[in-house]
Amino acid sequence: MSDNAQLTGLCDRFRGFYPVVIDVETAGFNAKTDALLEIAAVTLKMDAEGWLTADETLHFHIEPFEGAVLHPEALAFNGIDPANPLRGAVSEYDALHAIFKVVRKGIKDSGCNRAIMVAHNATFDHSFMMTAAERSGLKRNPFHPFVTFDTAALSGLALGQTVLAKACIAAGFPFDASQAHSALYDTEQTAQLFCEIVNRWKRLGGWPLPIPEEA
């Protein structure tokens, strides 16, 4: 691996992983029984100097799968009305198929091996996306089945905050609470937060890694 590749190569920065920021809105906490109602994804890229930035954004409102549980308290929290025809909702299959297609292209174009989910409290989002993919019969899932980058943990380390809104403010950019719990807004904020943490580590001299001296 050349010095320049380590500096600017997305695949080398994350050990062959292609990071994709994801956020979901749901009708409960159980990925197997509760409806997935909204999903957004932001792919990432590195510029010529090795700085991580947002790339493509995808966003879908999703129709509850047949038999899905819709908890009223969850709908009150996120403000989603699943029956509203103006949502323009699509099936889980259509939403995830579109996201996976873009992600697979990004993996190929960047020379990576596999996608890795970046999310705030990532276990929740990962479980809903993977369960929906399985339920939809999508076989070519590009995401790692269990490894994630959790910005809640990364923010706790880098910024001393674990709540998304507080972490964004600590990182130096605003967070509009009135737009929170929208998958699109939260994904865009999480992407900005993740890029800032990765780039801050670079600015502090933590990347690229020093080349060990030969004995």
Output the helix-strand order. HHEEEHHEHEHHH
Overall number of strands = 5
Terminal CA distance reads 20 Å
Quaternary organization:
single chain
Count of alpha/pi helices:
8
Order of strands, main sheet, comes to 3-2-1-4-5
Low-confidence stretches: none
Major sheet size, sense and barrel closure: 5 strands, mixed
Relative helix content = 40-55%
Shape: globular
Write down the overall mean pLDDT: 95
The assigned structural class equals alpha/beta
Using only C-alpha atoms, the radius of gyration works out to 18 Å
Strand content: 15-25%
How would you sum up this structure, described in words?
- This protein is an alpha/beta fold and 215 residues long.
- It is built from 8 helices and 5 strands; from the N terminus they run ααβββααβαβααα.
- It has helices at residues 3-8, 10-13, 72-78, 92-110, 122-135, 151-159, 164-171, 183-203, and strands at residues 17-26, 36-46, 52-61, 114-119, 143-150.
- It has a 5-stranded mixed β-sheet.
- Helix 5 (122-135) links the parallel strand 4 and strand 5 (143-150).
- Helix 6 (151-159) crosses helix 7.
- The longest helix has 21 residues, at 183-203.
- The relative contact order is 0.18.
